[in-house]
Design brief:
CATH superfamily: Capsule assembly protein Wzi
Radius of gyration: 23 Å
Number of strands: 20
CATH class: Mainly Beta
Distance between the termini: 45 Å
Shape: globular
Helix content: under 10%
CATH topology: Porin
Order of helices and strands: HEEEEEEEEEHEEEEEEEEEEE
Number of domains: 1
């Protein structure tokens, strides 16, 4: 992607939305949020906490970071560990096809050969974590955020080698995380903002809580584009995320804002890039691709959740009688439900989700400010959407189920998605009536998995997958043995 100078696109109404006020931090009595949990959003211990909460008619104890937990003991305790996990897997494919034309939504399914995690934490004050994955095949050279001396390094120092590496500290009431981590904002399995489908973000993250309010802020540089994999930096992409959330026992709503801008290596950084207030709307810092998002969830009865997200990437001011550029209102919506209960004493989770994005969702007049993240993964470089799981111009339905009984667990997921023909990341940023509405050919992917925890330290899993893409039916299967000493 060739860098460009200041965007030729004139700011529209989205650069004039109401902005947050820093005084919101002080409108409510400040209380200390709980210590950062070292587990990820899909860690078994966190899933159990979420299940127990929903079954009792309350919201899950995690969504935004930091994760609410039990009150910290007055006695400060420091703990730490070093864990190694090994996985051997084999897979086969018959007519299988990757969905690269679906906005590159799917990452590779290769599993690491060895995973190594080191962590330490003081329950009341600080924590650190280092997680590394090692693959059996040395990756090829790609442009990365890490400038290596040459292209023959025997270790994949970028990509998945270090997927989580951070230091966290509680300054009470402000918490700070610095390093590389995954982030998921929103109550659904997918997100219109940022999700843990993105392999990692290199970031600074701050969270401050007061009463039922939480303000979360992330400043990240997800992409540093270099010249041919060398050390000549062409530009740096800056991702600025803010989220204001209000929470009660069984319902929650939030307002979020995502701001993407690119800088020349010698270009200035301005205060609008950093502070969690939307001053860049009126400051006209170009190109500033901004997205507003509203989401909420409700637990109307024990075991049942209703969730939704609504996003606006641009608004045509002429709808309100305001002179504006002829850019359509760019929207996205995501709705879902979840039920958790038991079947013959065995835990069960049923989840359903529908979503739809405008054909320009995540796009922008200046290509360098589109909601894409170029990530150097092992053996390949891929673009990961920072805006929705299947990209622009797509409608989808996701259904999933999970059941477990003792050492055996079964799960399945059905994805049906329909992308309008002609919609890509390079679709011109302009009105195109022919791209309105739904597409004409739906694709589908059905994944099943059976896992047997043979012993506390090792287990077996088998995962068949059936796909339908561009009129071709594909079959894939993977078997894996994992061992944790």
């Amino acid at each position: 992607m060739t860098p460009r100078g200041p965007g030729h696109y004139t700011p529209t109404v989205k650069h004039r939305h109401l902005v947050w006020c820093a005084a919101l931090w002080w409108l409510v009595p400040l209380v200390s949020p709980s210590a950062q949990a070292l587990q990820g959003r899909n860690d078994p211990e966190q899933l159990l906490l979420a299940r127990n909460a929903v079954l009792s008619g309350r919201l899950p104890p995690f969504d935004t970071w930091p994760q609410p937990a039990a009150a910290v003991s007055d006695t400060e305790t420091t703990t730490g560990s070093s864990d190694v996990a090994v996985a051997l897997s084999g897979d086969g494919r018959v007519n299988g096809q990757d969905f690269w034309d679906q906005y590159l939504f799917r990452r590779g399914s290769d599993d690491p050969l060895v995973q190594w995690t080191v962590h330490a934490e003081n329950k009341a004050q600080w924590g650190l974590l280092l997680h590394a994955d090692y693959y059996s095949t040395t990756p090829g050279w790609h442009a990365t955020n890490l400038i290596l001396p040459d292209s023959t390094s025997p270790f994949p120092l970028e990509s998945h080698f270090l997927t989580r590496s951070w230091l966290w500290y509680d300054f009470h009431p402000l918490q700070i995380e610095i390093g590389r981590d995954q982030v998921h904002w929103g109550p659904l399995d997918n997100s219109l903002l940022i999700s843990d489908a993105v392999p990692f973000l290199d970031m600074i993250r701050g969270t401050i809580a007061g009463g039922p309010w939480t303000l979360d802020w992330i400043l990240s540089t997800p992409e540093t584009r270099t010249n041919g994999g060398g050390s000549d930096v062409l530009y740096v992409e800056l991702l600025n995320l803010h989220r204001l959330e209000y929470r009660s026992d069984n319902w929650r709503w939030s307002f979020s804002e995502k701001y993407i801008v690119h800088r020349q290596p010698t270009g200035p950084f301005v205060l609008a890039d950093y502070f969690p207030v939307g001053v860049f709307h009126n400051a006209d810092v170009n190109p500033n691709n901004n997205c507003l998002n509203f989401d909420g969830e409700w637990v109307p009865s024990p075991g049942f959740r209703v969730m939704g997200q609504l996003g606006f990437d641009d608004v045509d001011g002429r709808l309100f009688g305001i002179p504006d550029n002829p850019i359509p209102t760019i929207w996205a919506v995501l709705l879902g439900t979840e039920w958790q209960g038991t079947w013959d004493t065995a835990p069960v989770r049923l989840y359903g989700e529908v979503g739809m994005t405008h054909y320009l969702w995540g796009n922008f007049g200046d290509p360098s400010a589109r909601a894409l993240d170029l990530v150097a993964l092992d053996r390949r470089t891929e673009s990961i959407p920072l805006s929705a799981p299947y990209g622009p111009g797509t409608a989808w339905i996701n259904l999933s189920a999970r059941w477990s009984q003792g050492a055996l667990s079964l799960s399945g997921k059905l994805e049906v998605f329909d992308t309008k023909d002609g919609v890509t990341a390079d679709t011109p940023y302009a009105y195109n009536w022919s791209l309105e509405g739904l597409g004409t050919s739906a694709d589908e992917r059905l994944t099943l998995q059976a896992r047997w925890q043979v012993a506390p330290s090792w287990g077996l899993s088998f995962q068949p997958t059936q796909t339908y893409h561009q009129g071709v039916i594909g079959l894939e299967a993977q078997a894996k043995l994992d061992w944790k000493p």
